[in-house]
Amino acid sequence: MTLLEVKHLRTYFQTSKGLYKAVDDTSFDLDHGEALGLVGESGCGKTTCALSIVRLLPKEGKIHGGEICLEGTDLVSLGDEEIRSRRWKEVSIIFQGSMNALNPVMKVGDQIAEAIVLHEKISKQEALVRAGELFELVEMPVDRINNYPHEFSGGMKQRVMIAIALACKPKLVIGDEPTTALDVMVQAQILNLLEKLRKELNMGLILITHDLSILAETCDRIAVMYAGKIVEFGPVEKVFENTAHPYTERLIACFPHIGKEKIIPASIEGIPPNLFEPISGCLFYPRCHKAIPLCAVQEPEMEKTGEKHFASCHRIGEA
Amino acid sequence: MSKRIIAKKLMYALITILIVLIFNYLLFRVLPGDPLAMMMRNPRATPDQIEAVRRLYGLDQAWYVQFFTYFKHLLEGNLGISFVYKAPVAKVVASKILPTILMVGLAEIIAILVGILIGVVAAWKRGTKLDVWTLGFSLVTYSVPTFWLGMILVVLFCVQLRLFPTSGMLTPGKNFISTAALIGDLARHLVLPVLTMSLVLIGEYALTMRNTLIDVLSEDYIITARAKGFRERYILLKHALPNAMLPMITIIAINIGFVVAGAIQVETIFSWPGLGRLMYEALGARDYPLLQGVFLLVTISVVLANVLADISYAYIDPRVKN
Amino acid sequence: MKIKDFGKAIFKNKLALTGTVTLLIFILVATFGPLILPFSTMQFGEVEDILLSPSFAHLLGTDDMGRDVLANLISGARISLLIGAVATAISMLIGTLIGILAGYFGKGIDNLLMRFTDFFLVIPWLPLMMVLAAILGTSLWNIIFVIGITGWAGTARVVRSQTLSVRERQFVERSVSIGAGHAHIMFRHILPNVFPLVFANTVLVAAVAIISETTLSFLGLGDPTMASWGMMLHYAFAGGATAAGAYWYYLPPGICVVLVVLSFTLLGYAFDEILNPKLRGR
Question: Which among A176, B242, C127, C195 is most buried, taking Cβ atoms within 10 Å?
Fold first, then answer.
C-alpha cells in the first residue's frame, strides 16, 4: 500500500479579489520510506499543497475537491477531531525559517514533550526523556533541551524542529523549504541528517523547495508544480535526463552544472499567470519556448512519458 | 538578567530620583525675589509659620548650606510643616497613603483582570460585533476625562438612583457595630471611585491585549502548535497568552503615571481621603510644603514602581533573562 | 511613504474621514461662532437667571452665574482648541528636534538625550503639571507652556527610532560621502522621511494636550479669565451643578471634549493603519 496518494486535489482561497485556485487538480503519490521533491517557483502552490494534507490552511482556504489518502484513509473526508488526532502522529511538518516556528517563551524540550504527551499515553517525565533521545538523534547535546529557542543558532533551531517533527514517529514528514533560510554549509548538514533519519526510520518525506540542486541529491521522485498544477512527475534521474515538460527544462537550466562549460543561466521570461482569471489552454503557454498553437486553446492532460514518469504537455513524444 | 544590568537600571532610577529632588528644591527658588514672598502671600500662613519655614530651610544662610539642609531634612524624613494642617507634612501624607492604595489597588486589579478577559475574547472573536464594540468602548473611554466620567457616575448612581454615597470613605459619625458593618460601609463608598478608575483603565488594557494577542496569533509557532494537533483553546492558553502577556506587563507599568493622574481626579470628585485629594487641596490652598511633599512621594513612588516592573519583566521573559 | 499617497489614503479611510470632519466642524464653530452669537459670554445675568434649563432664549440653559451656556461653550471651544494647538506645536517641535538629533548623532548624544527623555516619560504628568502651574501661575501662556514642555517625550522616542532607520538608508550615505553637512542631511533628507510619522503622532499628542488642559482647568489651574471647557466643568462642579441636576451645564462641555479627543484618536488610529500595513484589516 502506498503511503500517500493525492488525487485531483483542489484547494482554493476565497479572497476579496475572488476565488484563487492555489492548487488545481493535483495528483501524486508516495511510498513508505520514499522521498518526494516538490519543486516550483514561489507562489506555485507547493506549500498550500502540503498544508492541505494536514488541513492547516488559513481560514480563507478550503479543499474544494479531490482525495488525500494516507495509507488508504481519505483525510479530506475526516472531521476536525479525527484530523487532529492524526496530526503529528502520522504526518508532521518542518516549517521554513524556524526563527518563528518555535514558541519563544517555552523550553524546547517542553515543546517536544507536549506533542508526545498529546498523542501517546505517557507522562511528561517520560516524554522529556524521549525528547533527550530525539536530541541525540539529531546530533544535539541532550542537556540543551532545557534551553529556549533564542539560545540556538539557525541551524540548531532547524535540528530542534526536526527533533520535534520526529517526536511521535510519524510515517510522513513534510519539509517546507527547511533549509532555505540557512547558509550552504548548514544546509548540507541538515539535508544529510534528514537523509540518514529517513533511512533509519523508514519515513516518507516530502521535500518542498525551489532549489532543484537539493532535490537531485536527496529525493527519489520529483513533482514539478506550476501555477497550482503538477506539470511533471517522476523518478529523479528520469526527470533530469529525459525532461518532458518545457518548464522543467527551463528550471533545470537555471542551475548551472559544475562539470559542464560555463553558461550564464537564462531566466524564464514573463510572469506566472494571474490565477484569479480563467485561463484557456496550457497555463505555461505565454512563457513556453516550445509552444504550438494548440497550447493556447487546449489544456494538456497528464501523459505517461516513461517508466513511472508523467508530464502534461502537448509536445510529449516528439523527437 | 545580569547583576550588572540590574545595578545599572537601579542607578538610573536613583539618578532620576535625585533630579526630582533637586527639581523640587529649585522649584521655589528659581523665581525672582524672596521665595518666601509666595508663601507670605498665602493668607493662611501666619508669621510664626513663615519664620519656622525660614529657619527650616535655612533661607538666611548661604545657598550651599541651604542645599545641604534640604537634603539633611529629607534624610530625616522632615518634609516641612503644612500650612493648612499645621502638622508635619510627613505625618499628614502618611495618613493618606492607605486610602489611595486601597482604591487604586482595587481599581488596577479589576481593570487588569476584566481588561485582559475582554481583550482575549475580542481577539478570539476578531471581526465580530463584540470585537467592534470593544474597540469602540476602548476608544471612547480613552477620550473621556476621568473626572468627567466620575461626575456622570455621581449623577447617575448617587443623585438619580441614590445607590451610593457621593463622597468620603466612610459615613461620617456612624458607629459601626461590627467589622462586617464597617467593611460594608467602606465597600459602599468604594464602589464608585473604583468603578470610575477601572472603566478608564479597562478600555486601554482591553485594547492592548486584543492587539497584542492578534499579533501573537499570527505568528508561526501558533501554526506549529496547530500542526501538532492541539485544540484551539489549548493553543490560546498555553502558547498565545503567555507570549501576549509580556507586552501587557510593560503597558501596565508604563501606565502607572496615568493611574496617578486618574487617582487625583477621582479622589477629588468623590472626596476620597487619599493622596490625590490631598494634593488637590494643597494646590487650592497654596500649601507649598504639603504640595511639595505629596509631589515628592508620588513621583518617587512612580519611578521606583517603574524600575521594579522593568527588573521583574526581565525575570519573566526568557529572552531577556540571559 | 510619500506625502501625496498618505493624503490619498487618509481620504479613503472612513475613520480618518469621520475624525477630520468632526474636527473641522469644531474648528469652524470655534473660529466663527463667537462672531455670530448674540450673547456676550461674560455677560452676567440677573439672579433669577441662574441655572435655567434649556429654552429658546438659552438653547443650553444658563450657568451658575446666569450666563448663557451655549455661548460659553462656543467661546470655550476657541480657548480649548487654541491651548491644545499651541501646546501640541511646542511638544512636537521639541520632540521632533530631540528625536532627530538623538537618532542622527547616536552614541553619546543619543544616550544623553534619551536619558533626558526617559526622565520626562517616567515622571507622572499631572502632579508635575500641578506643581509647575502652582509655581508659575495660571495664566493662559503658562498653561500652554506647562503642557507643551511635558508632552514631547513620546514623540521624541518615536522620531528617534524612525531617524535611526532612515539614517541607514542609502541616500543618506551618499549624501554624507558628497560631504553634505549635518544640518543639510537632517533637514533635507531625514525630516521629510520622518514627517508622516510625526504627523500621525501629532494628533495623538493633541488629544493628550486637550485632555491635559481640561483636567488642569477642572482642578482649578486654568486661566480664570478665559473660560475653556475645562473651566466650565470646574465651575459646574464647584457650583454644585451635579447635585442641582443642571445637566445642560456639566454635560455639553464634557461631550465636546470627548468628541474632539475622540476625533484625534480616530485619526491617530487611522494613521497607524495607513502607515503600518500590518495593521490593516484589524
Answer: C127
